[in-house]
Amino acid sequence: MVQYAAALSRHPSPVDAVGECVGEILDTLDGDRPDLVVCFATPHHLGTFADMATGIRKLLEPDSLIGTISTAVAGGRHEVETGPALSLWAANWGGGRARSVTLDAFATTDGHRIDGWPDDLPTRGTFVLLADPATFPIGDFLRIGERHAPGLTIVGGLAASPPTPASGSLDLRGLAPRDVPGRPALPALLAVDDDVRGRGAVGVVIDDSVPVRTVVSQGCRPIGQPFTITRAEHNVIQELAGQPPLERLRTTVAGLSDTEHDLLRHGLHVGLVVDEHRVEFGRGDFLVRNLVGADDTTGAIAVGEAVATGQTVQFHVRDAASADEDLAALLAPVDGASALLFTCAGRGHDLFGVADHDVDLVQDRLGTVPLAGMACAGEIGPIAGRPFLHGFTASVAVFG
Q1: Of 119, 194, 238, 319, which is least packed with CB atoms within 10 Å of its CB?
Q2: What pLDDT score does 313 carry?
């Protein structure tokens, strides 16, 4: 019988937090050993996380265990953004459905070599991945994964973030630079089975017999109309439907309502169609990337992703209302018995002005199921069947 369980403890004592969560998991699973345990802890437990992971593994005896420290964690109907918390999630599929993976990356003259990728990797199934962005080239890995196992769904998040200096971005009301504050570092700690490490990536490959549906909400909505790129180089769009992109952008902005125009204060983005074989493009068909620069002389714009001539794009806006609408719409047709949530550290109370927004939406749709999750420095999930790294996104793995 398939069983899922989840538990959340806010106890400041690591021993008591582990005891509370493990006890609840064992009660729900009737004492059975789970195939997989996933654990997330807040930085309050940074110094004791290795001991906590060891204790969880000894008490629950799962086939596989992965976990990490995160700036915030989710469990049940709560997102704990301040204070200590431990969130545990467990799945019992009857044995033999989960396999742990430890990955390391090494620079080569051709890019990066990824060590630890199983030779007998299945071509289908689900891969839940937790990675340290400072030591693991997630973009290279996702391209390798797509090439060698195109039917494998990859979902997860970046477990920590290096410090970022203050920088310039684009003030999209006037297309002028604006300052962006820096972000402090959170050191990476990744748990996999009996090991806790500070680099690379850890994950678990889940057998294709376990039904998993992914929901990737990038929190944006389109404005204006789609355009075809008629000239581009690398990440620079030089021409949109025969005109300079800045002209297309200014025309789009001029046609917005007052309400839509106000959304530009939160930033403007570019949605890139992933599957050009589709006749119509809707929610979930666009890979949303930042607009990172503009050249007023040539009218070109730069986006945070490589682009190509012939690709379809559409300008997007993001704010709390758009993010709420997008996640609710994508969850509407989804049913499941449990979920893992990987949500951006920039969402939460800072974006929505209320606590527990993303978990509430997921739980309202699924009907209050065992759920755990973490705040990420980048979220991993598929768009049009292809794996991508995202920002300001809620990436959800829904288990049947």
Answers
A1: 119
A2: 95
What pLDDT is attached to residue 266? Answer: 67
| Percent of the chain clearing pLDDT 70 (strictly above) | 92
Alpha carbons 201 and 129: distance in angstroms, whole number? 7
Please tell me the pTM assigned to this model.
Answer: 0.89
Q: What is the pLDDT of residue 160?
A: 67
114-121 long-range contacts, CB within 8 A, separation 24+ = 114/140, 114/141, 114/144, 116/200, 117/144, 117/148, 118/205, 121/148, 121/149, 121/152, 121/205
Q: Is 132 left (phi over 0), alpha (psi -120 to 50) or beta?
A: beta
| Amino acid 87: pLDDT | 98
CA separation for the pair 62, 192 (Å, rounded) = 11
pLDDT at 175: 44
User: 384, exposed or middle or buried, with CB in 10 Å at 0-12, 13-18, 19+?
Assistant: middle
In the predicted model, residues of the chain with pLDDT beneath 70 are: 160-186, 265-266, 279
CB atoms near residue 27 (< 10 Å): 11
Q: Where are the domains of the chain?
A: 3-162+183-218+323-399, 220-321
